[in-house]
Amino acid sequence: MAQGKIKGMQAKVASARHAQKAASNTKKGQRAVPPKKQVLIKQAQLHKNLSAKINKSIEQQMVNAASAGKLTIMKGIAQPEGSTSKKGPSKKITSVKS
């Protein structure tokens, strides 16, 4: 068995020049340069806050719309109180311990 490294198997040392070249390549995607002027800074902050409020409002409306109807998963288990079922008592799921 060989005791030392084989010439062809030695790891090549990454040069600083290669690292610098790799770092200089631009990445894909949109860039956002933060504004420098006070007026533009305030405008950007206002836009950010309004966008957050609008998104939160839309999410709340979606939650309300989704929870307005009956849950179809629990349809056979629970019914609203005060309503009588013509089919008889609802089925209850019991857990079986093994």
From TrEMBL:
Region feature Disordered, mapped onto this chain: 1-36, 76-98
Biased amino acid composition, Polar residues: 81-98
Annotated source species: Schizophyllum amplum
Protein name, entry field: Uncharacterized protein
Record InterPro entries: UPF0390
Family from the record: Belongs to the UPF0390 family.
